[in-house]
Amino acid sequence: MPPHGTMTAAQRALGIAEIVGLILSFVPRGWPVTRKEPLRHCALVNKLWLAEALPMIWYSIDSSIEALFKKLEPGRRQFYANFVVLGESNALHDKKCFKSLSRNLKGVVFPKMECLLLFTDGKRGEFSLPKLNCPNLRCMSFQDLDIENEEKDDDMGPAAWESIFWDLSTNYPSLKELDFEFPPLVFPYAVRRLKKRHPNLRDCLEKLKFREVTQFFRRGVLAGDNDYFEP
Fold this sequence. Notes:
Helix content is 36%, strand content 16%. By secondary structure, the protein is α/β, with parallel strands linked by helices. The protein has two domains: 15-58; 61-212, Alpha-Beta Horseshoe (Leucine-rich repeat, LRR (right-handed beta-alpha superhelix)), CATH 3.80.10. It is elongated and about 85 Å long. This is F-box domain-containing protein.
């Protein structure tokens, strides 16, 4: 036993940030949220462990960014936003939600965020993308909220995708990759217009599949090709 007050080699090692970070890298984390509980317990050990655990806890967000950051004190939002690399949000159909998001995240920057998962609810009409300040965002993925229905096709109409495509070029100019759970139903030449407005997406769009509206009926009912086309 070492003399009283003398640190052992193990104690000294656990006071080195690089070693603590290596240890925490082996702690299970990810989805579902409960898998992050071990990391949260590690963060309570001391200040050093907290500093090493926080970037891992906040690396990916398993719930809506808006809902999560709304619970945080305004003065702490930027601190946690600095850690986020993978985030989740929703394509907004309600203008009230859009205003609430703008208010809660005003001035907040996500400097490390690289990928954003957006959920859609299948409603018709125009949508708005959340205007998050992510200067280094590279990838955006769209997924239907009804993820359990494997046979389901894209519920959103071409008007919704048209408004989303418009927001892509204005809100996320750094974007280089898109991914869709289902091939979107779009207006004629919608993909061509997106390529023109957002040159960074040209290579990505060449690899994706879309369904184009081919017939217009009364009462706003649209018909698209059963076959997919590649732009």
